[in-house]
Amino acid sequence: MPAVNNAERPGPITLVATGCGTAIACVCALGLGEIERRLGGVWSVVAVGVAALLCAALARALGRLTAVVPSGAGLLAFLSRGLGRRWALVLMLPYVALVLALVAVEARIVGAVNARLFAIPPAVGALAFVVFTWAVARSGVRPGLRAQAAATGALVIGFSALAVGAVVAAARRPDFAAHLLPAPPSLMAMLGGVGQALFLFMGFELVTNQVELVRAPGPIASALSRSVRLLGFSTLAPEAGGSGLAGDGWLTPQLGLGSASGNPLGAAAIGILCLLASFTSFNGALLTLSRLVYALASQGMLPRRLARMDARRMVPPNALAALLAAVVALTFLLSTHALINAVLAGSAAAAGLVWAAAVAVRERPPFVEPGRPRRRQIAAFALAVLFLVFGVSALAEGVVGTSPARVEVALAH
Amino acid sequence: MTVVAQAQDRLGQALACFVDAYQSRPELVAEQRGWSPIIVLAASDADARVVVSLEDGRVARVGGAAKVPTLEVTAGLDILCDVLMLRRDPNEPYLFGELSVLGAEADFVRLDYIVSRLCPQ
């Protein structure tokens, strides 16, 4: 068996990149496009800004949770300690299931991007992406944290540069001012828009898992706050662009960003960035979820067969195979605009629910400090309520609200 | 015997039990060739702490101080003793936030693998 070298402890930049790398995926562009389509102009910017502020407050709460329970199991461990195991599992189940569904949507987007860039059939491109990423995880090769940081850096810089290019290009249009200030949306649409914007930050909290490697909660708390700031910037920039994301092909709005920037290399660059974003997100999800499936199976909560560990590669092969099967099935099942919208809305709602629980748990033993001021507890309660309201609104808007086009995804290719 | 000494003694005995179980499985020891961690186990609710060092997969030393452990496992004394005496799978307290591990994931996964091989299903 090969020797295992101790990984170096990640620095602050690497930690921030870890938080953002999990959150930034191609499906985020779809979320941004949906927000822009529903709200538009400055209202989209407001929605993302409000979501960023809420997540910044959540980051502070998560910092405290990590300091008291420094666990790689993250939210499940925090919620279990604060609310009990049963409630923690009930709250986490939809969240985990929707992460799988998001991976499937991501695979569809990769298929669509490949189809547009390289004329590969979408289904083949999607399947090849899923199987390749799974094979990397199954081989036991784990991209180093620094490699992930470099990939995330390229993503943030690349998308931000293209967004700035899109802003400059849009500013030359005569209808730019009108586009920036459309008619105010309804209250329900605005609430739903903020809820949908929460989805853009989903995954940043996974940086708490790195506390095992960092061995100190302080850097994790800083990385959580910085990740929210960076994600806020990188999502506000395209929204401020006010173009592109709601225009070109429904499933691949990021390609519209490339053409809106006016840069001939934009589409190719976006295509490569998309593949990179998808790979880092799916790889991270596979590794985290396979570990969770393995641990649950070893407890008898899932079939025991899934708890087998490959002694040479130190990966749970059966858990990974089960995840591959689930993602492939979902990739083919989630075939319509309506279903994908439901996944995005459901993810926002699930994130809102879990984050509300995390904020509430922060005010309960063993996390609450003795003598904590009552006003802080009231503020935390209000924050939890806001997460719930925005999450439910996103669900209502995404599932039962009217959608401009409910077409087969195949048409978007 | 003081309460502190009792806790330390209990943890030490549990570790000895685990080390015996591990060393009685030569194929498992051979699988860990190339792995030389220093593992600290500390009780969160008592003043008790034990250290075990492996060299090339074999138990080299039990006890002593560890300045920079490869892995640091922390849990309540009862949980630690149950895990070391193979009465409880460590995944359960880990998942639900009652046992924490500080160190690189590769080392943590390997330790988990060893315990899961020793634990009766």
Keywords:
heterodimer, A: 413 residues, mainly alpha, Amino acid/polyamine transporter I, 17 helices, 73% helix, disordered N terminus, disordered C terminus, B: 121 residues, alpha+beta, Nonspecific Lipid-transfer Protein, Chain A, five-stranded mixed beta sheet, globular
Explain what this protein looks like in three dimensions.
The complex is a heterodimer of chains A (413) and B (121). Chain A has one domain: Up-down Bundle (Amino acid/polyamine transporter I). Chain A is 73% helix and 0% strand. Chain A has 17 helices and no strands. Chain B has a single domain, classed as Nonspecific Lipid-transfer Protein, Chain A (2-Layer Sandwich). Chain B has a five-stranded mixed sheet with strand order 3-2-1-4-5. Chain B is globular. The termini of chain B are far apart. The model of chain B has no long low-confidence stretch (mean pLDDT 91). Classes of the chains: A mainly alpha (413), B alpha+beta (121). Chain A binds chain B through residues 1-4, 6-7, 69-73, 76-78, 80-81, 85, 88, 142, 211-213, 215, 291-292, 294-296, 298-299, 304, 307, 309, 311, 314, and chain B through 31-36, 57, 70, 72, 89, 91-92, 94-98, 100-110, 112-113, 116, 121.
